[in-house]
Amino acid sequence: MVCIGAVAGAHGVRGNVRIKPFTDAPEDVAAYGPVTDAEGARAFDLTPVGEAGGLVIARMSGVSDRDAAEALKGLRLYVPRARLPAPAPDEFYHADLIGLRVVDTSGRDAGTVNALHDFGAGDLIEIRRPDGRLVLLPFTRSAVPAVDLAAGDVTVEAAQLAAAEALPGAQDDR
Question: 70 and 141 share a domain?
Answer without folding.
Answer: no
